[in-house]
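dude i think i finally got it to work??
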Amino acid sequence: MTDVKTLNDNFRQTFTGGRVMLTTGINAKSQDDIAKILSKVRQFNHFTKANDPYNEHDFGSFDYKAEKIFWKIDYYDKNYQYLSENPSNPNITNRVMTIMLASEY
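look at this
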């Protein structure tokens, strides 16, 4: 098993190992803006005790063109019905990252 932080970092940086969901507000942007937002998510590395108290690297926020963007990783069972019992075990966990405007949260 790998720690949750490492699994989340790998998923966020590569977008492999889970599903990436874009909200309506993100999807309404131009393809160029979406590509830049996705790149900022991949490169995000501003984790602090204040925004990452459990050291899992499962949430981040940044500004893009005067809008606050959030991304959040959640953990589900293999059927996407319930929360995962053990997010550090990729054999029983599906990761879902949602990228959204802060106003959509």
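The two ends are 31 Å apart (CA to CA).
im so relieved honestly
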